[in-house]
Amino acid sequence: MTIIFNNHEFKYEIEAVCKLFFPCILFKHEYQLSDLDRDNLIVTQLKQEQQTIYLSTMVRLDGQVFSEQQCVDSNHIHCEKECERLLAVTVYLALKRATGIDVKWGVMTGIRPVKQLNYWIEQGHSIQQVKEIFQRDYLASEEKFELCKQVREHQISIIDASKPNSYSLYVSIPFCPTRCSYCSFVSSSIAGTKAKALVNDYVEKLCEEIRYIGDIVKRFSLSLETIYIGGGTPTTLSAEQLILLTNTIKQAFLVQDVKEYTIEAGRADTITREKLLAIRQAGATRISINPQTFQDHVLKAIGRKHTVQQVIDCYHLARELGFEDINMDLIAGLPEDTLETFQDTIDKIIALSPTNVTVHTLTIKRSSDLFQNHEENEKISDDAIVQMVEYAYQKLTQNGYYPYYLYRQKNTLQNLENIGYCKKGYEGRYNIYIMEEIHTILAAGASAVSKLIRHRSQKVHRIFNYKYPFEYNKDFKTILERKNQIAEFYQDINFSLDIHK
Q: What is the pLDDT of residues 28-49, one digit of tens each?
């Protein structure tokens, strides 16, 4: 399918709206009006006549034509932003008519809708006014607004508790035992000889980066709130490597007062008693054991080498070793799953009673094996995926869980969202901080991105590490040089007036 961008520079937002309706299509881009009689064509255009700017979209699909138009006064105080929004509205309305698909998020294409809700409230809007903005300006459904509102209510106390000098630490372990078919993360399968050879050198350099960050932090009055070791699959490391890593963190940072310390144990085929004991001795307060499904045939379809029973055994072992706060991830829409088998998965996870359950909707990214084998438009209109997510919400909320964070991704089936549920008092603080961008996240490891944030600011300064482990190992000196931006960011900030508020 081709998108024509004529006389405007809103390519990113317009393509994002198009992907709401066609998440698995690679769009072609053109910038001139030509050969408009083609099928599978989306033409977007901006044209100004005197003081009026006309924004229009024409869609040709299966021999039918659908058109929409909006206009903006060129003297509008936020003219460019309003033009972008209204052009997105024309695309949305034309594609809704052309496909018959009702996108409940409307033209809200951002990853963080709750953050946007919080921003509007901080700007002085009442909750009723924000609801009107959601529905009138962005065409989002009342259902999605109420979901955002509910999430906000459950996280606001944690947001307010984050002080101006707060920060969190993220550590990336970009290795997995094998690569799942849906995965688009930058991770290497340690089944390969080359990846195995990288691990020792990677862990040594990772520890060096952690110490380097720790030395910078000591120069400022920063307060570490949460630690999150994620991946990939951190438990692809040996117990000895986990001990080395976590001891390095203890030496480099003041960890005794952190409010949350999470280590993703991840896949059952990497979890052992020795590794869980190493995690426990490190002081971790929260772990993830992620089944993705409780159906053996679905695990096989996505390339996982463990069974459902192994997941359950790992969960009980973690409980036996004293882990109280355990998260489990599930994915709605996996290959070979059905509404009935997904409902069975939800029922089984409720019976286990973890403190956290995160329900993802399958996202088909270009870099995943699943995208390469996914037939165009396959299952995109499958109501079963919507019913899966709705069933998860109903059953979890009926059994003592509530949604406390959510985020959205491109190429997600049915344009749905990912929701983190928890029992009362077990909110994953790091999840709230990273999604709502409340305070600085200092990140170490391959593909890690540090986010430097001034208190209550919408602006985020990012420091990127190299994506792949071999790049990280090879050009490690550059990684450390980039980390000096942390000191530059904080050197002119005085927290003394605000720390004790």
A: 999 999 889 899 999 999 999 9
Q: How confident is the model at residue 416 (pLDDT cuts 50, 70, 90)?
A: confident
Those residues with Cβ within 8 angstroms of residue 248's Cβ, 6 or more apart along the chain or in another chain: 207, 210, 211
Closest by alpha carbon to 439, among 120, 165, 148? 165
Strand partners, 3: 29, 42
CA distance 365 to 215: 38
Whole-structure pTM value: 0.90
Cα–Cα distances in Å, from 173 out to 207, 320, 327? Answer: 12, 26, 18
The pair of three-digit structure tokens given for residue 126, joined into one six-digit string: 């009442």
What are the backbone dihedrals phi and psi of residue 445, each rounded to the nearest 5 degrees, phi first? 110, 170
DSSP string, 252-298: HS--TT-SEEEEEEE-GGG--HHHHHHHHHHT--EEEE--B-S-HHH
Q: State how far the Cα of 288 lies from the Cα of 225, in Å rounded to an integer.
A: 19
- Cα dihedral sign, 224-148-55-99: positive
Q: Tell me whether the omega of the peptide bond preceding residue 232 falls within 30 degrees of 0, making it cis.
A: yes
Amino acid 179: pLDDT: 58
Distances (CA, A) of 379 to 95, 332, 333: 18, 13, 9
Instruction: Select from 49, 45, 43, 90 the least CA-distant residue to 73.
Output: 49
Would you state the pLDDT for residue 23? 78
What is the chain's mean pLDDT, rounded? 90
Per the CB < 8 A criterion, the answer to whether 401 and 354 are in contact is no
Query: Given the structure tokens 């008693």, which residue do they identify?
Result: 273
Decide if pLDDT at 391 tops 70: yes
On the CB side of 135, CA atoms within 13 Å amount to 12
At residue 256, the pLDDT reads: 85
Distance separating alpha carbons of residues 142 and 146, to the nearest angstrom: 6
Residues 6+ apart with CB under 8 A from 335: 181, 298, 301, 302, 370
Contact 327, 354 (CB under 8 A): yes
State both tokens at 85: 């929004």
Query: By three-state DSSP, how is residue 258 classified?
Result: coil
